[in-house]
Amino acid sequence: MAVQYLISLDLSNFNISQVNNMNYMFKDCSKLISLNLSNFITSSVTTMDSMFSGCSSLNYLDLSNFNTSQVNNMNSMFYECSKLVYLDLSNFETISATTMNNMFSGCKDLSYLNLSKFSTSKINTMNQMFKDCLLLNTLDLSSFDTSQVINMDSIFYGCLSLFSLNLSNFNANRVTTMSNMFNGCSNLIYLDLSNFNTLHVTIMRNMFNGCLKLISLNLSNFKKSQVTIMYSMFSKCSSLNSLDISNFDTSEVSQMNSMFSYCSSLNSLDLSNFDTNKVTTMSSMFNKCSSLTFLNLSNFKTSLVKTMSNMFSDCSSLISLDISNFNISSYKYEFIV
C-alpha cells in the first residue's frame, strides 16, 4: 500500500531502541489520522528531520514518551501538519538540537503549542519555524536561548492570530537576516524589540509588513548595523501612528522601496538621520501615507537613486515637503508624487 493512502498505523509493538535516524519516517502520509507511537524508545535517535512532514490529516499526536535528548536535527519535523490542533512538547529535551528550520511551518490549525522546556542554546537556524501557524494566538518562548542563532528569516511569518509576543529573552547578537520576520502578523498589537542587537543583520525586507494592528513598536536598540535591504520593512503597518527610528544606521542600505507604504495612520516621520548615499531605489517609499503631515528628509542624498516612482503618492495630508536637496535630474519623465 502506498503511504499516501495509509489511514491508521499502530507501531506500539515496535522495538526501535537501536534506531538513530528517523528522518522522513512518516513524511507525506497525508491520509493518516491515527498514529500510535506509545512504545517508541527514541533515546538513541540523533535526527528527526521531516519525521511527520506532510501528515496533513493528523489532528492529534501523543509524543509524551519521546526522549529527544540526543536529537540534533528537528528541521521540518511537523511541517504541513495542517490539521494538528494540539501539540504538547513540554517533555522534549532539545539540548543537543542545532537546527529547527520549518519545524512547525504550515501547521495551520494549531491553536495550542507547549514548548516550555525547549532548550535552544545550540540552535543556529530558526527560519520559518512558526510560519503560517494561522490559529496560534499565543506563544510562550520564555525558555528560548537564541544566542547562537544566525537566521530568523520568516520565523513568525503569517501568524495571523498572534496578538502578543514576548521576545524579551531573545538574543539577536549573531543574527544576519530578519527578512519577513513578522510579515503578516496582522493581529499583533505591541512589539518590544528594545533588546535586539542588530549589529550583524544585513536583510530586513518585509520585516513588519502587514502588521495591520500594530500600534506600538520599540526599536530603540536597532543601531549600528550592516543592513543593505529595507524594502517594505514597515509596509501596511496601518495602525502605527508614531515610529521612532532616529537611531537607525542606514549607511549600507541600497533598497528602500515601499519602506513605509500604506502606513496610513503615521502622522509624523523624522528621517533626518537617514544616510541614503548608497540607496538606488525609493519607489513608493511613502505611498498611501495618507495621515502624514510632517516628513523630514533634510539629509537625503539621491545621487544613486534610479527610481522614485510614486514615492509620495497619496500623501494627501502632507502640506509641505522640502526636497531641495534631492538630485532628481534623471526623473523628468517619472512621477514621484
Which SSEs are present, and which pair or pack?
Layout: E1 8-10, E2 34-36, E3 86-88, E4 112-114, E5 190-192, E6 216-218, E7 268-270, E8 294-296
Parallel strand pairs: 1-2, 3-4, 5-6, 7-8
CATH fold title of the domain at 1-171: Leucine-rich repeat, LRR (right-handed beta-alpha superhelix)
* CATH structural architecture of the domain at 1-171: Alpha-Beta Horseshoe
Largest sheet: 2 strands, parallel
Mean pLDDT figure:
93
Report the top-level CATH class of the domain at 1-171. Answer: Alpha Beta
Describe, in plain words, how this protein is organized in 3D.
With 337 residues, the protein is mostly loops. It has a domain of 171 residues: Leucine-rich repeat, LRR (right-handed beta-alpha superhelix). The chain is 0% helix and 7% strand. The protein has no helices and eight strands. The strands form four sheets. A two-stranded parallel ribbon has the order 1-2. A two-stranded parallel ribbon has the order 3-4.
Please supply descriptive tags for the structure shown above.
elongated; little secondary structure; 337 residues; 0% helix; Leucine-rich repeat, LRR (right-handed beta-alpha superhelix); 8 strands; two-stranded parallel ribbon; two-stranded parallel sheet
